[in-house]
Design goal:
The complex is a heterodimer. By secondary structure, chain A is mainly α. Chain A is built from 13 helices and no strands. Chain A has 2 domains: 52 residues, no CATH class; 218 residues, MetI-like (MetI-like fold), CATH 1.10.3720. In chain A, helix 12 packs across helix 13. Chain A starts with 5 loop residues before the first helix and ends in a 6-residue tail after the last helix. By secondary structure, chain B is mostly helical. In chain B, strands 1-2 form a two-stranded antiparallel sheet. Classes of the chains: A mainly alpha, B mainly alpha. Chain A: It is a multi-pass membrane protein.
């Protein structure tokens, strides 16, 4: 019936332009980094415009070089330990906390919520100064344990917020039935609530893992003196200070990105609902 | 299996003399369950914040750490005075405000544009939606390293395109150039680059929230408006925008607060060179380069004070709107 007006046609063209630019801008840099990591450094320097390397030129040498020669493999192992420990502790704490926040009435519940929100908004760089001083005072800088606790404190408020959404979706009638059957509180959380909210818990764990894996500032402040303890983010950032071939840096960057992006694509839907809950209310 | 786990019919005798009431037990359990979280947050976030306030008024340097005891503290007002009177602090504060305001506005606007473009379903929309979120989850070090390579004057793609295809006379050192004349304008090149990076990295969050809000907008009003002959632009201005205003304002404030304290992106891209020294970088260099805990804390404290002002203004505006 109605023919498309000029307005509609302009907007339609604009829409596809926005989509095309958005895709190019978000995927482009990653793809660029990946393609560079497959080329010898000399060829990147002499022909920066040849994005698609000729087939006979493709090499994956940059990856073993980055991992072994420049020590990123060891750094990755440190990052993995730190991120796993952070995710495990943050989830343990925040499952308990989120359950209490959703189901139980207790004195100080409101205060606790306000404090957590405040912590979430406090600048990391401002907390970094006293944390550095206090942890050096007790000899915990240069240890991965100190870093894990700092990460847990930084991520627990977000984890708690996300888990609250997932736990609210668990019907409380199931829990009441279990309670009547004589199930204790902790057993209830472990045997009833956790299995029902498992996808949400997994998504939150993944999110916390990503934050810890990606973190840079605290790693820089605490660990910079001790090369054996560097996390992989710190390792790559330190390498950029020296004349390390950019192809090696790209290989390192892609290597630390792959696990994060893969995990994100797997849990994307759940993460999105967890992060944006509450947005619908405006 | 299940029956085996059932409690024995006769409950064991209570060890406690007076059993807790249900609500007392709920109160106790609640506090025990939040306990671990509260302890970690108190130790690693609240206590450090109180320490920052203390350190800001102490004469203390990095070398003093081993001799730092609670009973031999030397109080001084000099840190705050020194920072307050330093022109470098104020120029960093200005840069921070410009940086935070532009990247927050940019992120919300780009997020809005992409959310609107991806609103109606089409084949492959799910994939594109996920793709658009990638910069947000990318490790910041990887993202910064790739951007630095892209913008590299020697072999970066941007400069290669510029010099070979667009006829630039010479490659531009994007991340170290403070300003450059472009016709009648003086363009702050490095600052624009770090802003672009921040917009690129954070617009996905705005996109997510705006998309979530868009899904909650009832479609029938819009259809009715279009049947009545209102064009898409008018429908957007009068129907959609008022619906989105709340979430966009909240996002703008949150993004401002986060960009205001951003350290990683700027430190990794420019190290604070080329007119991009923001307050967070100043805190870091006071601490690490000048080894002065006192002035670093004072800078951090003043920075937090500025953030609190923004939060207070936002809270006041929300309150006034509701009244």
């Amino acid at each position: 019936m109605s023919r498309p007006s000029t307005e509609d046609r302009v907007l339609g063209a604009l829409r596809w332009t926005v989509i095309a630019v958005a895709v190019a801008a978000t995927a482009g840099p990653l793809l660029y980094g990946f393609l560079l990591s497959l080329r010898p450094f000399q060829s990147v320097v002499s022909e920066p415009l040849d994005l698609l390397p000729p087939l006979d030129e493709i090499t994956i040498d940059s990856y073993p070089t980055a991992m072994a020669e420049y020590g990123l493999g060891g750094n990755m192992w440190n990052s993995l330990q730190v991120a796993l420990a952070t995710a495990a502790l943050a989830i343990l704490f925040s499952v308990l906390g989120a359950y209490a926040a959703v189901r139980l009435r207790f004195l100080g519940r409101g205060t606790v919520n306000v404090v957590f929100l405040g912590v979430y908004l406090l600048p990391g760089i401002v907390l970094a100064v006293p944390l550095f001083v206090l942890l050096s005072r007790v000899g915990l800088t240069g240890s991965l344990v100190g870093l894990v606790f700092v990460y847990v404190a930084q991520t627990v408020p977000v984890a708690l917020y996300m888990l609250r959404t997932y736990l609210m979706a668990v019907p409380s009638s199931v829990e009441e039935a279990a309670m009547i059957d004589g199930c204790g509180r902790l057993a209830l959380i472990r045997r009833v609530v956790l299995p029902l909210a498992l996808p949400g818990v997994a998504a939150t764990a993944l999110y916390v893992f990503m934050i810890a894996w990606n973190e840079y500032l605290f790693a820089l402040l605490f660990l910079v003196a001790d090369r054996d303890r560097w996390t992989v983010s710190l390792g790559i950032a330190q390498l950029t200070e020296f004349s390390v071939p950019t192809t090696v840096l790209m290989a390192g960057s892609i290597a630390i990105t792959v696990p994060v992006v893969a995990g994100f694509f797997l849990a994307q839907r759940l993460l999105v609902t967890g992060l944006t809950s509450g947005a619908e209310k405006g | 299996m299940r029956t085996a786990e059932r409690p024995v019919p006769d409950p064991p005798p209570e060890p406690r003399r007076k059993p807790l009431t249900l609500s007392q037990r709920e109160d106790l359990h609640g506090r025990l369950l939040v306990g671990p979280t509260v302890i970690v947050v108190l130790l690693f976030a609240v206590l450090p914040f109180l320490a920052v306030v203390l350190f800001a008024f102490l004469d203390v340097r990095l070398v003093d750490i081993p001799r730092l005891y609670i009973d031999n503290l030397v109080f001084t007002g000099e840190n705050v005075a020194a920072v307050w009177n330093s022109p470098r602090f104020w120029s960093a504060a200005t840069t921070t405000v410009v940086y935070a305001a532009s990247s927050s506005a940019g992120a919300v606007l780009v997020g809005l544009a992409v959310a609107l473009a991806l609103r109606r379903p089409f084949r492959g929309r799910g994939l594109i939606r996920a793709l658009v979120l990638v910069p947000y989850v990318l490790p910041v070090v990887a993202a910064a390293t790739i951007w630095k390579t892209l913008l590299n004057p020697g072999y970066g793609l941007v400069n290669a395109v510029g010099t070979q295809w667009l006829g630039w006379a010479e490659p531009i050192a994007f991340l170290t150039t403070t300003s450059r004349d472009l016709g009648p304008f003086e363009v702050p090149v490095a600052l624009l680059c770090v802003i672009a990076f921040e917009v690129w990295k954070t617009f996905p969050l705005a996109f997510l929230f705006i998309t979530a809000r868009l899904q909650a907008v009832p479609e029938d009003i819009e259809e009715a408006a279009q049947i009545d002959g209102a064009g898409k632009t008018r429908t957007f201005r009068h129907l959609l925008l008022p619906e989105l205003a709340g979430v966009m304002a909240l996002l703008a404030v949150l993004r401002f607060l986060w960009s205001f304290q951003n350290f990683n992106d700027i430190y990794l891209l420019t190290g604070g060179a080329g007119g991009t020294e923001v307050l967070a970088v100043r805190v870091y260099s006071e601490l690490v380069v000048r080894a002065n805990i006192g002035t670093a804390s004072a800078t951090g404290l003043l920075m937090t004070g500025m953030l609190l002002v923004v939060v207070a203004v936002y809270a006041w505006m929300i309150k006034r709107e509701r009244a």
